[in-house]
């Protein structure tokens, strides 16, 4: 029976103990250079001793740890990091979870009003957030809608502070380059006093230094003039009037 060269090569590698008795002394044929539980073996094919490594290490002396990251272990564009044989995923903006499997989301349940109710959700994407929800009980027409500095209900909506404005700019429209981060313009209620919200905004974010977790969302009684009113109030608040309802932005379970 003829054996292939590969089979002969496989049979030629004979594992020996790392230590060999010579004149009563134990001698390491690999000079003690095999690291990380690698074994010294002899190959009849090459007629040399070499280090045979465990599966987690490689290299001439088994000195290098293998990267245990596997393709696809991190989802949604995340990338795998292996340090000290521990695998972790670093997620791109908008995703979270052990394997980046969850899209980052926030929620805000309106309170502080006996007539206004609703839940507003915020979902992070690579280039901005999508804000959706339904609000009931607000008079038909336009109402200013903003992220405010604080999520502090100690004095109801009044303790939410001003618009979230980390860069110290003047008030504007959502599409303006110069605006507060929290400027989301107006939402519109129909004749049934219901507003269906669907806004995509590129400045509000759930990630980074200026994320909006723990801050407040406010629905105002009046129309936001988007900074076009020609007075100081317009450039500060949009003259949107009193606060009808508010909520604190929190992580969505």
Catalogue the unreliable spans. 7-24
C-alpha termini separation: 66 Å
The strand count comes to: 21
What topology, given as strand order, has the largest sheet? 18-14-13-12-21
CATH topology type of the largest domain: Immunoglobulin-like
Q: Report the CATH architecture of the largest domain.
A: Sandwich
Major sheet characteristics: 5 strands, antiparallel
Bin the strand percentage: 35-45%
How many separate structural domains?
A: 3
* Helical proportion, percent range: under 10%
Shape, principal axes of CA atoms: rod-shaped
Mean pLDDT: 88
Q: What's the CATH C level of the largest domain? A: Mainly Beta
SSE pattern, N- to C-terminal: HEEEEEEEEEEEEEEEEEEEHEE
What is the gyration radius calculated from CA atoms? 32 Å
What does this 3D model show about the protein?
The protein has 3 domains: about 30-65, Laminin (Ribbon); about 70-105, Laminin; about 105-250, Immunoglobulin-like (Sandwich), CATH 2.60.40.200. Helices cover about 5% and strands about 40% of the residues. The chain contains 2 helices and 21 strands. The protein has helices at about 5-10, 230-235, and strands spanning about 15, 20, 25-30, 40-45, 50, 55-60, 65, 80-85, 85-90, 95, 100-105, 105-110, 115-125, 130-135, 140-150, 155, 185-190, 195-200, 215-220, 245-250, 250. The strands form 7 sheets. Strands 18-14-13-12-21 form a 5-stranded antiparallel beta sheet, with no helix packed on it. Strands 17-15-19-20 form a 4-stranded antiparallel beta sheet, with no helix packed on it. A 3-stranded antiparallel beta sheet has the order 1-4-5. It is rod-shaped. Its EC number is 1.15.1.1. It catalyses: 2 superoxide + 2 H(+) = H2O2 + O2. It is an enzyme of class 1 (oxidoreductase). Its cofactor is Cu cation; Zn(2+).
